[in-house]
Amino acid sequence: MLLSVENVTKTFGRNKAVDNVSFALEKSAMIGIIGRSGAGKSTFLRMVNRLTDAITGAIKFDGRDILHLKAAEKRAWQSDCAMIFQQFNLVPRMDVVSNVLHGTLNRRSTFATMFNLYPQGDIHRAIDILDRLGIAEQAPKRAEALSGGQQQRVAIARALMQDPKIILADEPIASLDPMNAQVVMQALRRIHEEDGRMVIANLHTLDTARRYCDRVIGMRGGRIVFDGTPDQLTTGVARDIYGADASFSEAATSTSIEALETPAERAVHQAEATV
Ligand SMILES: Nc1ncnc2c1ncn2[C@@H]1O[C@H](COP(=O)(O)OP(=O)(O)OP(=O)(O)O)[C@@H](O)[C@H]1O
Ligand SMILES: [Mg+2]
Prior knowledge:
This protein is α/β, with parallel strands linked by helices. Helix content is 39%, strand content 22%. The chain contains eleven helices and ten strands. It has helices at 41-48, 71-80, 96-101, 110-114, 120-132, 148-161, 178-195, 206-212, 235-242, 255-260, 263-274, and strands at residues 3-12, 15-25, 30-34, 56-61, 64-65, 81-85, 166-170, 198-202, 215-220, 223-228. The site of magnesium ion (MG) has 4 residues, from helix 1. This is Phosphate-import ATP-binding protein PhnC.
């Protein structure tokens, strides 16, 4: 097994955010985790890269239990699984290349970091990665001057700078319009296919999970309630994952609709879909 998750549980007080979750992956794949707000998707990703600690269970990568790594080994693991967030988490006033070079932080000395000294080779590599993502010409600009889709690609470039084995993406397209969402998902898909890196993406929307992922995991109330291929993810199954009754409409979980709506409209639609 490349990745095996065994009975992992995380509680916050009496709330089981992730409840006895298990699944295994024989080889690298692009995985989508779906489920409504509060299902435990982010908590799960954060346990994989040790931003938060599981209470019980094991997560093994290549046979090695990563939940008990300490100090340098833990940092090495965190650099093996790069994280991408909904809000990009770039340094807005800093130029794009420097933002990408931040991906090498965990292997540079404090001195080099303090004085913003980067080896020439790293700078070239950063530009190459930006080029691969189609945004090399943005390199000298401040991150804040870029569109959301471009900023998310900068965040992906920063992740690639770590040469990670896994990319963990927490709602990578939730703040993007449909066109940018597509560009970002295609970039992640290509990185998976061309480099063989595993991608685990939390996604709010069914259609995105179906279109880009090899396997979809549905979470509800901290538990896995679906684990299968996009084909197996029927409307009935989706209804179960999202905890909706017969009035469930797929449109309410569609990227295109969601992105065009204001948060208030989206809340209304989600409420309608789950009443
Ligand atoms: N730091 C925390 N302290 C207390 N409770 C938390 C914390 N983080 C998450 N939770 C709780 O754990 C549960 C799962 O939250 P999580 O953020 O993992 O859900 P999610 O599926 O990512 O939701 P969303 O789609 O809104 O991002 C929720 O009930 C949430 O309130
Ligand atoms: Mg979340």
